[in-house]
Amino acid sequence: MTSLLPTLANSRWQAYTLAELMVATAAREIKDGEIVFVGMRLPLIAFVVAKRTHAPRAVGLFENGVIRGTPAPELIYTMADPPNILGAIQCLDMLGVMSLLQSGRVHLGFLGAAEVDRFGNLNSTEVRGVQGMVRLPGAGGACDIASLAHRFVTLLEHSKQRLPERVSFLTSPGYGEGHLWRERQGLPRGGPSAVITTKAVLRFDEGGEAFLASLHPGVSMEDVLASTGWKLRVSKNLQRTVEPSLAELEAIREYDKDGFWTK
Amino acid sequence: MAKVVSLRDAVAELVPDGASVAMGLQMEQMIPFAAGHEIIRQKKRGLTLIGPISDILFDQAIGAGCVEKVIAAWVGNVMMGSAYNFRRAVEQNQIEIFNMTNFSVALALQAGAMGVPFLPTRTALGSDTTRGHPFFHPMVSPFEPKESLWAVRALNPDVTIVHVQRADRDGNAHCWGNFGVMIEGVRAAQRVIVIAEEIVDSGVIRSDPNRTVIPGFLVNAVVESPYGAHPSPVQGYYKRDDAFFRQYHEQTKTREDNRAWLNRWVYGISGREDYVNQLGACRLGDLTVKQHAYAAQADFGY
Question: Rounded to an integer, what distance in angstroms lies between the CA atom of residue A256 and that of residue A74?
């Protein structure tokens, strides 16, 4: 099954990195004209790629109060770096952008997490390590975005530890325990639409359970199933994750010149 | 006291041991590091730190033993990830942490600013962050009785410390860039310290009232401190010193390393001028504005 498909090693572009593949995949989740809660790290670059390729009319919101119609003119490490202020549409307050989120104006948000579970719930508060509890930085705005955006996409490393059946601490709500859980909690809308890992893309069925939707080039289904903390269901229509196009790679590399985020 | 004071006096008088202190409210911009370092140098104890996120400042105060409680959504080093003093302190139960979300911090301060006991929200329903939490209480809408909400309890910090581009001698302050939760954090506070890159004539402030984020009557102390937000950026003055955040990450991994870091950058120097000298003209030169980008003028005439 895998033999006919290109792999990371023998693809046309040879040297695209896994991070570049994830960024291009994340960029394609943004539809033109959408209002997007961007976040930092890889999703920040996904917003740049989307703006320069298929979604020129997308608008980016940042929880510090910044609203941008164009990507920052140079690479940034935090959302409050001066280039992210220069040329913004609006720079005001957190309450303002969070109000837009709560009132249903935001289509999509991007998140990272230490753990994602079978129903797309995220943990970014604390994990149990070999030597006891490991404290992580915390929710930040992730819980707000997961609660209130129309949909959200999570990016993380694919391993059994990072993808447990049930998160040990539910920081940011996915589909909770499944069907109608969000409604029962009183959440007004939303839920995860995809999880982009270092091996694959997971999507969610009507019951809120994750399934394997596409395998990254060169990755086997067995590998993904063995690296997931529950019995992951597989789509009948399993795909290969589309490799980054030349235009996408150019956008990534022009922006992240030294590969700080995408090496 | 006169409003324009030294940072040393402002911190000595307005930040007593055991105070709740809100700072870093503009997220990763204009973090009042000079004030944070003065708090550390004066060995304040038993503080409660309040903020949405903290890009290494809370970590420094925790590592120096000043902190008893943290009310925040995220504490770390934004470009590098975790911050080690915070991790150690929480994992070893040395501080109490109230896990918030960014929005709920904003709502708590806004409730405090408005003089109401709580504000309702739909965020964090179903999240473990709210479990057994003194700042979240379940409620239903009195108007639509089927709607579940969280009531987020008001927060009124004893003192809010902000860094801005410019203020006049009365504390009327201009700021531009992102505000985060600074405006509600100032309105909610019992006392306010404004640290400015420059103290300017009040005519400068009144020429552009839409840029005034703080009216002076809320302010107890005004401090002029050029580079007082370094290594965080101040729009129009200096950019972010990314290398400094990276080095902090490398240099504070253990308790001993952290002590050495504090000795070098906080205890071993007398104040911000000394700190700026230690940074050196070369490093500061790299950080200053290379290409000015002035806004179009606004005509307030009639």
Answer: 8
Which amino acid is residue A141, in one-letter code? G
The answer to whether the CB of B136 falls within 8 A of the CB of B152 is yes
In chain A, what are the domain boundaries? 3-113+132-255
Angstroms from B6 CA to nearest CA on chain A: 28
Task: Kindly list the domain boundaries of chain B, sorted by start residue.
Answer: 7-117+156-287, 118-153
| Per-residue pLDDT tens over the stretch A127-145 | 987 888 999 999 999 999 9
The residue with tokens 């895998």 is: A2
Cα separation, A238 vs A243, whole angstroms: 15
pLDDT, position A131:
82
Nearest to A59 by CA among A69, A73, A47: A69
Q: What is the ipTM of this complex?
A: 0.97
Architecture in CATH for domain A3-113+132-255: 3-Layer(aba) Sandwich (3.40)
Distance from CA of B1 to the nearest CA of A (A): 31
pTM above 0.90, yes or no: yes
* Cross-chain residue pair B74–A81, CB shorter than 8 Å: no
Q: CB distance A185–B179 less than 8 Å?
A: no
| CATH class as words, domain B7-117+156-287 | alpha beta
Summarised one tens digit per residue, pLDDT across range B143-163 is: 988 899 999 999 999 999 999
Tell me if residue A63 is catalytic: yes
| Residue contact A78–B55, C-beta within 8 A | yes
- The rounded mean pLDDT for chain A is 93
| pLDDT tens digit sequence for A9-51 | 444 445 899 999 999 999 999 999 999 999 888 889 999 999 9
